[in-house]
UniProtKB/TrEMBL annotation:
It comes from the Bacteria. It comes from Yinghuangia aomiensis. SUPFAM superfamilies: Winged helix' DNA-binding domain. InterPro entries: HTH_HxlR, WH-like_DNA-bd_sf, WH_DNA-bd_sf. The keyword Transport does not apply. This is Helix-turn-helix domain-containing protein. Residues 38-136 form the HTH hxlR-type domain. Keywords: DNA-binding, Transcription, Transcription regulation.
Amino acid sequence: MFDIAPAGDGRGSAPDAEPFAAAAPLPPLSADMFAPGCPARGMPIRIGEKWSGLVVVCLADGPRRFSELKVPLRGVTPKVLTDTLRALERDGMITRTAYEEMPPRVEYALTGLGRSLLGPIAACREWAMTHLPELMAARDAYDDANGRAAS
């Protein structure tokens, strides 16, 4: 398992400040830092996986059908949305209810466990809104320094 201790107020440091002023060399990273038993290995919302958190937010107000979810999630393919919904269902974050009607109807809804993600997701969204200008400036500076076109 690993510890992440926030420095200062958690908002980062001034652009010209050194990120770490270590008085002594840092200890080496452990090969077991992310061992198979580490809780971080089973995280349902993966940092690089962009659709799960968005689906959770889409379901915050109540059950939705697949076609309803596709509207705000422009750009997600049906396969990726299906895979995301299955992964969230497997992790106990959502339920899938199929109604025996003609035409068939399927709805997805948050479980209590899934609803518990709304607070952390809101905190991430707030952080992003606060720091987006800094993030974009850092990307632009990196791209300028490395001769890359802005993405």
